[in-house]
Amino acid sequence: MAQALVARGYAVVVTDVNEAAAMQTAVEIGAVIGLAHDVRDAARHREVAAIAAEHGTVNVWVNNAGVGFDGALSELSQERADALVDINFKGVMYGMRAAIAAFGERGGDILNTASLSGHGPVPGLSVYAATKAAVLSLTTSVNAENKAIRCHAICPDGVDTQLVADMDQTGQARALIASGGRMLSTEEVAEAAVNMIGTNRVVRTVPAWRGAMMRLSNLTPGPSMKLEPLMRLEGKLRMKRAGR
To answer: Could you tell me the pTM of the whole model?
Structure first.
């Protein structure tokens, strides 16, 4: 996303909990600066906004930080459950508040990374999915609250990232992610996300057909989840073939 924004002429501020990585990335892609940023710290969002304002008008804010701890609700440690809520949801909320303040009356665009899982039930990824559903709800509501601000949520299916690689590769969630077909590349998700900026589109799911299926499963969770064992089996077979 940062690369795509640089290519479009934005003066991009790259932030990450790993300051060295943020600084290195900023140099590599031509961003103006890289900063340490723990999204669980509400005050740090405001500090980042102030530093960004030194490099130009703040008119785009991207909330992309996230963790993807999988496992059933009963299996998640307290530390991981807290991290999912604090990073995936509260981090987005704090970022949106900082962005709104930084935009002022002129407005701007807020781009949030949600997930396909936010559209419906994903057993084995329940808390993660709940945080992404919360991000979707927050995005659509805040978009309606502020006429000068355009809020967008990108909802990708499984993406070829470290977040997915760190999941239990034999677990229920990983098999369900694989059941959707090929993994998306970070580049195609970033392109779809950045293309929302400046438009009135609030939610975009990639690929679109998976979004339709997930919304249907959310409307009929009982009958739909009866197919879950078959979907999981399909995912395991796809992973096995890919491993070859």
So the answer is: 0.93
